[in-house]
Design goal:
alpha/beta, Rossmann fold, 6-stranded mixed β-sheet, 5 helices, about 25% strand
């Protein structure tokens, strides 16, 4: 298979087309829509270098004790916790420089590991299996999302839960006005259709219990 810049990085389809072009200037980007899995993505030749991505991430407030940040992460965490068994071991994948969700889980008695390719790149934690995995504001950054989802699948135990939080639009017609694509580190944009397509790829079940949250169950 020939992989082009416009090949969908999730389903590998070439049935894609430019849906939107960003503002002119240093952050000009194109946004490609896949007609097969409904992903919108930025061509990989237009993504920031790792060093520029890191500089951007460090502009966020990621203090693990910051109440506002915890409240934001709680959109996923409060939805996931009631579904976990006591003693469930988790992984916060793509935790960023301030792994606040992992701290919240530890405070509730859940052992949890952390991984981030830039800030916590210890790949030893990727060699284990987990009862639950969280990805909060992470999948939109994946440079190779298909490979990352397969990696997550390999680490998730049978009966486990994968909790994801990302911006999800109900209609791509609202994309031009959406704030989410204006973050230069966001390169993948998922609809419920896209996440459902991924659940089928992995033989998972998926639900959308609240806005911008998806819970995957691995049978």
């Amino acid at each position: 298979m020939i992989i082009r810049e416009t090949t969908c990085p999730i389903c590998m389809s070439d049935d894609t087309s430019i849906m939107h072009r960003g503002d002119k200037g240093s952050h000009y980007r194109e946004f490609i829509h896949c007609s097969n899995c409904d992903l919108v993505f930025v061509p990989r030749n237009q993504i920031l270098s790792p060093s520029k991505q890191k500089d951007r991430y460090l502009q966020h407030n990621n203090d693990i004790m910051d109440e506002g940040y915890r409240k934001f992460l709680n959109k996923l965490y409060s939805t996931l916790v009631p579904r976990l068994n006591s003693g469930s071991h988790g992984l916060d994948y793509g935790c960023g420089p301030g792994p606040a969700l992992a701290q919240m889980a530890k405070e509730d008695g859940f052992p949890i590991s952390i991984y981030d390719p830039i800030f916590f790149p210890d790949k030893k934690v990727l060699e284990h299996q987990y009862n639950f995995i969280t990805c909060t504001e992470a999948i939109e950054h994946f440079s190779d999302p298909r490979a990352d989802f397969h990696k997550l699948d390999n680490m998730l135990s049978s009966g486990g839960l994968l909790g994801i939080m990302t911006g999800i639009l109900e209609s791509w017609s609202n994309f031009p006005q959406w704030y989410y694509h204006r973050d230069s580190t966001h390169i993948n944009f998922f609809s419920k259709n896209t996440l459902t397509w991924i659940s089928t790829l992995l033989n998972y079940q998926v639900s959308f219990p609240r806005e911008n949250v998806a819970i995957f169950y691995k049978p």
